[in-house]
Amino acid sequence: MGQPEHISSPANTADLSECHPSHQILFEPIQIGPVVAPNRFYQVPHASGMTEANPRVRAAFRETKAEGGWGVVSTGAVSIHPSSDDSPLPFARLWSEADIASHALTTEAIHRHGSLAAVELWHGGAVVMNRTSRLPPLSPSGISWAATHIGFMGQLRPKKMTGADIDDVLEWQRLATRRALDAGFDILYVYAGMGYLGYEFLLPEYNHRDDGYGGPLENRVRFVREMLEVTRDEAGDRAAVALRISLEELRGKPSEHYESEAHGVVSLLSNVPDLWDVKMDSSPNDCGASRFRPEGAHEPIIDFVKRVTDRPVVGVGRFTSPDTMVSQIRRGVLDLIGGARASIADPFLPNKVRQGRSDDIRECIGCNICIASWHDGVPVRCTQNATAGEEWRRGWHPERFTRTEKPASLLVIGGGPAGLEAAHVAAKQGFEVTIAERADDWGGRVLQESQLPGLATWRRVRDYRVWALSQMGNVSMFTNSELDAEAAISVGAEHIAVATGARWTRRLYSALEIAVDALDHPQVYTPEDVYSERLIGDRVLVFDYDNYYLGGVLAEHLAAQGRTVTYATPAGHASAWTFMTNELPFVYQALAHRGVDIHTTTNLIGFDGTRAAMQNLFNATPLEIDADSIVIVGHRESRDTVFEALVASKPSGGEQPCLHLIGDALAPGAIVHAVHSGHTFARGLVDEETIYLRDEPIVPAEPTRVFPR
Ligand code: ADP
Ligand code: SF4
Question: How many domains is the chain built from?
Answer without folding.
Answer: 3
